[in-house]
Amino acid sequence: MNNIKKITYLFLNIFLFGLANIIPKSKKIWVFGAWFGQKYSDNPRAFFEYINRNQHDIEAVWITKNKTILSQVRNKGLTAYYYLSLKGLWIQLRANYVVLCQSLHDDLYAPSIGRQSKVIQLWHGVPLKKIMFDVFGDRQNNKNIVGNFFDYLSPYDQHRNDFVIATSDLTQNILSKAFRVPVEKTLITGFPRNDVFLGSVKERNNNTLLKCIYMPTFRGGIGTECDLFNQYGFDLAEIEQAFTKNNIQLTLRMHPVNTPPKKLIESLKNSQVIILDDGQDIYDTIADYDCLITDYSSIYFDFILSDKPIIFAPFDLEKYKEKERALYFDFPEVTFKPYCMNWAEITSRLIDIKINGLSDDYISEYKELKKRFHREKSDSVQSYSEELYRTITKTFKEN
């Protein structure tokens, strides 16, 4: 974008932001967005669908930057608009409540969100790795005078969250500090996406298929290939034989920013017991799995609500801490042993769980960790989404 286009774009955004700050807001209009406007998923999706099912006096609207997602949401019979369409801009200008899981700049069209609108940050996980201002809060500003001038004229691009949600007293303190939002505005409601774990748990026996999913955290940059297989002893023939014999099925789901090695993709095309996930919203299926395998992904803080086994496979723990990102906790403090440091150990551990179940010590540690990271929802509500809705409406009445 050349300088003339940049300046034109800037002044159009300034004009729009000016409108956003004078146009009256409607308390009946709630807009939702997620994951850079490129996905229909996560906490905003779960809460959006709850509002549509249960709060019919609210005009809930999904805003997207992806026209495929636009069609997907509309095909569900729900209201959605493209973020730069006239209707989409008008709805964002009028919305009193704004629900997201990244930032205004990422998930919606930030200049169209006025200061009177209430921004509700649902985020996308209980953090194990450091996030937000705990990561970049002290970084130096290396922009030149022109860059700083553009920033000064673009206040809509600054991080703004009026409220953040948390799952327990412990996560409330972490998220309050990470987002620089007061503790009293960090609401302990639980995550809407975790409503999927509130159903009944099916009984298992040794003849039942053990459905497992492997979900490592992200490494490197967007679109990078991530090999956590060959270098850690992933022998497809041996694993397939062991899983077939013991009635175990394994789904591999890489983090959305990473891709599995091409050789692995090819080798799994004919496998009956090891499957590559198709990349849809994991919360459509996560409750169907009987066991989670992960390293440092915060998915396990959600999965712990299922009361099903979790296997930790921190293949590269020291290297990860050195090269990727610092953790909020010492890893052993918030995980269960035994750790599996290669694929042979994962295979052995899955077979042991299938045949012998879990030890009393493991179950005790599991329950204790669950208490630390999840406050029990109120008996008066049926779901975390309902808890969130009631807390939001009560909080805004009081403020």
Features:
single chain; 399 residues; alpha/beta; Rossmann fold; 2 domains; five-stranded parallel beta sheet; 15 helices; 37% helix; 15% strand
Strand content: 5-15%
Instruction: Give the CATH superfamily of the largest domain.
Output: CDP-glycerol glycerophosphotransferase, N-terminal domain
Write down how many β-strands occur, each being a DSSP E stretch of 2 or more residues.
Answer: 14
List the domain count as a whole number: 2
Average predicted confidence as pLDDT:
85
Task: Give the helix tally.
Answer: 15
Shape: globular
Main beta sheet strand tally, sense and closure: 7 strands, parallel
What does this 3D model show about the protein?
It is a single chain. With 399 residues, the protein is of the alpha/beta class. It folds into two domains: 209 residues, CDP-glycerol glycerophosphotransferase, N-terminal domain (Rossmann fold, 3-Layer(aba) Sandwich); 177 residues, CDP-glycerol glycerophosphotransferase, C-terminal domain (Rossmann fold), CATH 3.40.50.12580. The protein is 37% helix and 15% strand. It has 15 helices and 14 strands. It has a seven-stranded parallel beta sheet, sandwiched between helices. A five-stranded parallel beta sheet has the order 12-10-8-13-14. α3 links the parallel β2 and β3. α2 crosses α15 and α9 runs parallel beside α13. The two termini are 42 Å apart. The model has no long low-confidence stretch (mean pLDDT 85).
How does the SSE layout of this entry go?
Layout: H1 3-20, E1 26-32, H2 42-54, E2 59-64, H3 67-75, E3 80-82, H4 86-94, E4 95-100, H5 104-107, E5 118-121, H6 133-136, H7 145-152, E6 163-166, H8 169-179, E7 186-188, E8 210-215, E9 224-225, H9 236-246, E10 248-252, E11 258-259, H10 262-267, E12 274-276, E13 291-294, H11 299-303, E14 310-312, H12 317-323, H13 343-356, H14 360-373, H15 384-398
Parallel strand pairs: 1-2, 1-4, 2-3, 4-5, 5-6, 6-7, 8-10, 8-13, 9-11, 10-12, 13-14
Helix pairs in contact: 2-15, 9-13
